[in-house]
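S1.2 Input.
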Amino acid sequence: MDKQNRKAIIAGNWKMNMTPTEAGHLIDALVPAVQGANCEVVICVPFTDLCVAVAKCSGTNIHVGAENVHFEKSGAFTGEISADMLTDLGVEYVVIGHSERRQYFAETDETVNKRALAALNGGLKPIICVGESLAQREQGVTEELVRMQVKIALNGVTAEQLKNVVIAYEPIWAIGTGKTATADQAQEVCAAIRKVVGELYGEDAAKALTVQYGGSMNAKNAEELLGKPDVDGGLIGGASLKADQFAIIVDAASKG
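S1.3 Output.
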């Protein structure tokens, strides 16, 4: 019953793929493929593709997100993009704290929190990523680690702001590796995320929170993963670059 009252969100994370020209072609294929979706459909695209994406998705059921945002409103931060810049373009969502940002660009739990607050204060809906490495899973500290990441990421976020937050569980060992957490593993950690949010904000807020799974979700395994009670959607990598595969995942989420 709780799941039926939550918003299922399928968000494509294009990563560093697609020129603006290629993005336009992909969106042209996506629009008819997902137009009947009974879930929220989001594409999170590189900065250079945002103008094309916003223009192409205008008047459709596809929402546009960015892949990162800086935590300052403006200033001497060469190469960075602020929340105000994104909202002025018509962007609605932003991915924050993806494992690749943490691994390659020195993102920390603290900067994830600063970016989340900047996004919320700037009118964006953050998709906050949390997850463990293979070593951490083998050491049996997955739940402790994810609880800590969630708590730090939400530090200073009000109960009202939480309504615009999405949390994505993405086990690092399953990102771009072809490995996927089993449906039971995904459910276990997504439930743990909901539990810690309940401790922080109350049971009603936790029940209303959208928790995604991200980690090699694809057309073949989406239905099983999305069938779990605490998995409300997916943050999709490689499969989001192929309209037909992405549409299958959207369809699986629409069935709920």
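S1.4 Remarks. The chain has one domain: 3-37+52-69+82-90+97-255.
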